Amino acid sequence: MSVLDIIRRRRSVRKYRPDAIPDEVLGRVLEAARLAPSGKNSQPWKFILVRDPERKTRLAEACRGQMFMAAAPVIFVACGYPERSYPRQGNYMKSWSIDVACAVDHLMLQACEEGLGTCWIGAFEEKDVKRLLNVPDEVRVLALTPIGFPDEIPRDRGRMSLDDILCDETYS
């Protein structure tokens, strides 16, 4: 299967089977995140895997009550180090959020290739997630995703056409 085929197949899954993820499969998914590019190769990230049922439930509550997350065998939490990232992205920002987003995207695409489902979770209370997982003050939480075998096939929600989003040579 091509990368483009995987991108076309990936969906946000909100219903998971309780089946455990084999270690070798999870290892490949995590390796994809590890290999993501980052500004100046700073790799300003740390990832937390949450498997404990009680902690998953509390995380789901911290994610505005998205309780479907707790049904997945694993919740992946992506954290970034602003001070370890490239400081002049576009000459106006630090690169950590882009770097960590690349890692999460790599993880999600590899998960899809492995037959696993994911769902980018950006609706969360960072202070609650940090407290629950003992994340230090200087570290930021960017995103979470449940990872597991889908118990649904989400519909294709469509995408804008290239004509609607692409400019040639200059912004128009």
Task: Give a short summary of the structure.
By secondary structure, this protein is an alpha+beta fold. 34% of the residues lie in helices and 14% in strands. The protein has helices at 3-9, 23-34, 53-62, 96-113, 126-133, 162-165, and strands at residues 45-50, 74-80, 117-118, 140-148.
How many separate domains make up the residues? Answer: 1
State the distance separating the first and last CA atoms. Answer: 35 Å
CATH architecture descriptor name: 3-Layer(aba) Sandwich
Order of neighbouring strands in the sheet with most strands = 1-2-4-3
Number of strands: 4
Classify the secondary structure makeup into a structural class.
alpha+beta
| CATH class label | Alpha Beta
Any overview of this molecule?
It is built from six helices and four strands, in the order ααβαβαβαβα. The chain has a single domain (3-153), classed as NADH Oxidase, CATH 3.40.109.10. With 172 residues, the protein is of the alpha+beta class. It has a four-stranded antiparallel beta sheet, sandwiched between helices.
